[in-house]
Amino acid sequence: MALWGGRFKGQPSLQFKKFNDSLPVDYRMAVQDIVGSIAWAGAIHSVGIINDCELTELTEALNELKLSVEEDPQQILGSDAEDIHSWVEIALIEKTGDLGKKLHTGRSRNDQVATDLKLWCKETGGELLFALVNLQQAMMNLAEREKDTVLPGYTHLQRAQPITFGHWCLAYVEMFNRDIGRLKDALYRLDVSPLGSGALAGTAYPIDRNNLAQKLGFRTATLNSLDAVSDRDHVIELLAAASISMMHLSRFAEDLIFYNSGEAGFVEMSDLVSSGSSLMPQKKNPDACELIRGKAGRVFGSLTGMLTTMKALALAYNKDMQEDKEGLFDALDTWQECMEMAVLVADGLKVNRSRTLAAAQQGYANATELADYLVSKDIPFREAHHIVGEVVLAAIDKGLPLEDLTLTQLQGFSDRIEQDVYQHLSIESTLDKREALGGTSRSQVQKALDNIQSGDREILNEQVVGAPGKEQIKVALKQVKQRLNAQRAAALSVRRARMSDVDSIHHLTSYWAEKGEILPRSRDNIIHDIQNFVVAEIDGNVVGCASLYIYQTGLAEIRSVVVDQQAQGQGQGQALVQYLLGFAHQIELQKIIVLTYIPQYFTELGFSLIDKSSLADNIIEDSEQSPYKDPADEVAMEYIVDRCVVSTESADELES
Q1: Cα–Cα dist 475/478, whole Å
Q2: What is the pLDDT of residue 540?
Q3: SS3 of residue 160 by DSSP
Q4: Which of 69, 441, 497, 598 qualifies as a FRET site for 49, CA 20 to 30 Å off?
């Protein structure tokens, strides 16, 4: 059954029907179509198209259908419906009779499919965001494990300078961080609802489209009906984000394929991600990485196809746009699968440290250090560069590394060279000198690991970036650790509170105040302090909140950290605190305190115990004792906001 036909005398051919129907692809949007239909039922009720009883009947029937689809989505494929919109409407009419035929009043399949697709993209985008964060975490774990492992660095696939394996890992952490930023940007821009735009000219009924958008979980409604139904920028942006990230994954895979080769022998892949040869029993092939590399082209193809489809389409909707979903679904599925596979690869990777060290010691990788040594002896760098080139040429002729040349031999090229030169030619010295921010030194790798929970973009702009030194790897790893928490907060839908959240916040705080876990907050108090609250959402519902109370310049307290009982154990509480810590940095606070009965919880978030009596009197006075708790059990803790590690992305950008 089609939703059209009155205009036609005959039936379409079966061949055309198969060519035209999109149900085998768009059935994946069944839940989104039903959710949009429930919201639309409310919208047409608000303008008098259906009455209260009809709204109740439609809503109950649609919810039953939604539950059925969630339990068995494959049931849809047995239908001969043209598309998912037809299937839902047909199923609804079977449940409610002629009442079901009223639902499409004022709505077109054009704004319906645009809404369904955006709802699907929002949900899938959250899953992709989690996958990216997990991939970053896997690379951070590998960096932690191999932070001291020496690895030859390459340019032009020629050995260049020694780095650490941890530094290599962190390069991909940075790439995946940019992927997260692109994905968040795309999700922010697509978060506007087209529903109510009709076929192209808007709906003829006085529906409050902004209210409708908010009920569906969108930020707002689109501003132009013509654009709303013909816009597929969000599809292209998501495909572009996927393509760039797949390019990064492909480079990651290519590096490891080379490192895994018999010629390099730097790493061995886990059996979990390898296969063998049907002919040669000795073979262990890096097939997971090769498939990641190969699937990148598949994702690129989807992007190219969509750009080509859209490049010459006149406004508004054209059936060409039905081709948007198959490529998008496949590309995002592929991207997520490749990220999950890359995590398996990283988790099971075994590094041959003796082989990487031996390779780093070959190829005259310390030649730059000899040039820098000569610069320290007041020889201009360009002249030092020439001298070292001659030394390398002589060393090659003798078949010796630079450090094995005698002092007499070295002094034959420059009388400025002295006995202290040898301390500059070791691998340890080469690494240790790379102390500038972003460098490969082991201490820098460790600092980076220590900071990996929040990161800081400002410091990267203020200092020298990119040199590979020991101290810098330590810095970078710490930054990535801290930044990951901010990314998790984004993935867990933590955002700044709005006035529309007041009732939800008041409900949460009142519930836990009655149980004695926090101090009560009046509704008026919440309204007055709403700008200092953050909330966590699940499926568009506020399930947690926290607030930041500022006492004086540089000092604030985190208060009212609560999560709904049904949502506990999913990380929302930690994400709320981490969001506030990022926000504290953004507004240049220096110290965050908390008064708590569960110090172990805040210890895991980087807080340290302090003497409660050291707090100012006004802080103690503001923090009344709970009548349900022993005052002796309450402790004071503090978090020092490190200006060098907290991400500037962790507050405002989490909104997107």
Answers
A1: 5
A2: 79
A3: strand
A4: 69
* Cβ proximity of 648 and 458 under 8 Å: yes
What are the φ and ψ backbone dihedral angles of 591, each rounded to 5 degrees? -145, 135
Residue among 449, 457, 475 nearest 650 (CA) = 457
Cα-based angle 584, 451, 603 (whole degrees, multiple of 5): 70
DSSP 3-state of 343:
helix
Handedness of CA 183, 185, 191, 192 (dihedral sign): negative
Locate 165 and state its tokens: 């394996």
Q: Residue 537 pairs with which residues in a beta bridge?
A: 542
**Res 436: pLDDT:** 67
Give just the sign of the alpha carbon dihedral 70, 193, 330, 343.
negative
Query: For the chain, how many residues are written?
Result: 656
Q: Could you say which DSSP state residue 313 is in?
A: P
Please tell me the predicted confidence (pLDDT) of residue 472: 53
Question: What are the residue ranges of helices labelled H in 400-533?
Answer: 407-411, 427-432, 442-450, 457-462, 470-491, 502-514, 523-528
pTM over 0.85: no
Q: Is the peptide bond before 242 cis (omega within 30 degrees of 0)?
A: no
Query: What angle separates helix 30-46 from helix 84-96, to the nearest 10 degrees?
Result: 60
Give the angle 578-580-582 at the CA atoms, nearest 5°: 70
**Residue 156 falls in which region: left (phi positive, over 0), alpha (psi -120 to 50) or beta:** left
Q: Which amino acid is at 410?
A: L
Q: Which residues of the chain have pLDDT under 50?
A: 453-470, 478, 644-656
d(CA 241, CA 237): 6
C-alpha 641/C-alpha 555 separation (Å) is 10
The neighbour count for residue 183, using CB atoms within 10 Å, is 25
pLDDT digits (tens, 9 = 90+) for 327-369: 999 999 999 999 999 999 999 999 999 999 888 877 676 788 7
Residues serving a catalytic function are 156, 277
Contact 258, 159 (CB under 8 A): no
